[in-house]
Amino acid sequence: MKAIEVKLDYVDKKVLSGYDAMIERVESSHQTLLNRSGKGNDFLGWVDLPKSIESEIARIEAVGNRLKKSADVLLVIGIGGSYLGAKAAIEGLNNYFGHSGMAIVFAGHQMSAAYMEELYEYLENKNFAINVISKSGTTTEPAIAFRKFKHLLEAKYGKAEAAKRIVATTDEKRGALRKLADQEGYDSFVIADDIGGRYSVFSPVGLLPIYCAGHDIRELVKGSFDTYHQLHEAKDTDALYRYVAARNLLYEDGKYVEMFVNYEPKLHYVAEWWKQLFGESEGKKHRGIFVASAAFTTDLHSLGQYLQDGKRIMFESVIDIVEPLSDVSISRDEENLDGLNYLAGKTIDTVNKKAMLATLLAHYEGGTSSILIQLKKLDAYHLGSLLYFYEVACAVSGYVLGVNPFDQPGVEAYKKNMFALLEKPGFEAETKAIYKKIGK
Ligand code: PA5
């Protein structure tokens, strides 16, 4: 089989009656992306990253090797697109109960004081280094976390040694982080102007932490490159067009929620990454599919009831990992008190796949459509294919929807209020206005 295949057997046939017309819209949106003639076309650097990153890989590995030699733990500081790609790939590829490279911990992706305090205590006794990632170099959450852990690093190792243990990934010229990196002499990587955060996993933003975690970034990038070639050059677009067409047809049929479903919990953060990618790209002008996720069979014992029988507002896109990386067989028991001997000799993956088929059929019959996305394997190569496939699907889908998939104007509203409430210099008028609004 190909790295990724998409099946529509469990999608409402009535909805699929509009398929041919929708495919034309999808095809033309794909062309718009390739011609660079659509909205946000100054943010298309990610499209060619699978090719253009090649020349940077050796340096990413060299810096990663230096970090690996000097420290056991890498603290990755970033939020949104500046952490989710790395987190998704690392969790997707790591052994559940161990890791082959550095231990990777994250900060700056939320503002929990308890998290920060407990992470501080954990790092105090660890030999650690920092990769701080912020394209703008001014985002509040990672900036606060970086200040805190930079001080810890300097207290532990002294300023000069601390500087050697910090790598900054940021804009080439702008932002406070760039200034800091240049002044303190940190090693740094540049996030190109035309690559937005959520499309940056194949840049140093994602690749350095993934490499430090002990994963083969060359295979990851190769997977993305082969998918690039397949979709844009060989024009083998069946899987892509099926996914984009089906989700837009379902949306136009009033199914406003897409549930990313996995049967392999290693994909939990791939789902989080996917939610950011699609949510931030499509949710505009009061349009867009709301993206949610579930892990089966776990969530069949919670959300399963709603999906089977609740309000018909959603559809599922189900990831099926066709070849498990390992499998375990169920043993025979002499006494068979639990009555499970009918499964003896069968494997856990067989049972998992029967659960998937059973659920696809049950949900379909209950009126919930599922798009089935088959991924050949969960290794670095195939994960690279999957992440790139979703990036292209998201951009094309955004164009079908008629929005700019590369900006995020809505994110600014909360930031403006937060700066006003924190009385940030430069926000005096906003502070006055917000205090009046809340009666302070
Ligand atoms: O996808 C995006 O553009 C955002 O999620 C950003 O990655 C996020 O807001 C972090 O921004 P920055 O890297 O500038 O700190």
Could you provide a short overview of the structure?
With 440 residues, the chain is an alpha/beta fold. It has two domains: 4-39 and 221-401, Glucose-6-phosphate isomerase like protein, domain 1 (Rossmann fold), CATH 3.40.50; 45-218, Rossmann fold.
Overall form: globular
How many runs of DSSP E, i.e. beta strands? Answer: 10
CATH structural fold name of the largest domain: Rossmann fold
* CATH homologous superfamily descriptor of the largest domain: Glucose-6-phosphate isomerase like protein, domain 1
Query: Which sheet architecture does the biggest sheet show?
Result: 5 strands, mixed
Order of helices and strands: EHHHEHEHEHHEHEHHHEHEHEHEHHH
Sequence of strands across the biggest β-sheet: 1-10-9-7-8
Q: Which blocks of ≥5 consecutive residues have pLDDT under 50? A: none
Q: What is the SS-derived class?
A: alpha/beta
Describe the structure.
The protein has a five-stranded mixed β-sheet. The chain has a five-stranded parallel β-sheet with strand order 3-2-4-5-6, with helices on both faces. Helix 10 (about 215-235) packs across helix 15 (about 380-400) and helix 11 (about 240-250) crosses helix 15. It has helices at about 20-35, 50, 55-70, 85-95, 115-125, 140-155, 160-165, 175-185, 205-210, 215-235, 240-250, 270-280, 305-310, 350-365, 380-400, 410-420, 430-440, and strands spanning about 5-10, 75, 105, 130-135, 165-170, 185-190, 255-260, 290-295, 315-320, 370-375. The protein has two domains: about 5-40 and about 220-400, Glucose-6-phosphate isomerase like protein, domain 1 (Rossmann fold), CATH 3.40.50.10490; about 45-220, Glucose-6-phosphate isomerase like protein, domain 1 (Rossmann fold, 3-Layer(aba) Sandwich), CATH 3.40.50.10490. By secondary structure, it is an alpha/beta fold. The chain is built from 17 helices and ten strands. Bound molecules: 5-phosphoarabinonic acid (PA5). The site of 5-phosphoarabinonic acid has 14 residues, from loops.
